[in-house]
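Re: weekly structure request thread

Next one in the queue (89 aa):
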Amino acid sequence: MSSLLRSLLVLGVASLLMVGCGEKEVAAPVEEAPVAAPAEVAPVEAAPVAGGYEPTAEERVPGITIDPATLAAQTEAAAAPVEVEAAAE
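Done, posted below.
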């Protein structure tokens, strides 16, 4: 083995030993902040159900992008039979 490769091997093993056997960092204890009662709760805006990116009118492709009104109608239609079955039992 050449002396260059031997020295690189020794340096590699030495660095692994120094990292592995080195002093471990101790995590600082986490202090919990006191929770204050909210003085006044602001009304929360209604968040979209599906979430995510909403395409603009120019970005919508007919037949591929579902209109939000159509999606809401399909969701209500799908939920109606489930409510009927639950009421029957």
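The chain has a mean pLDDT of 74. The first helix runs from residue 3 to 20.
Next request, please.
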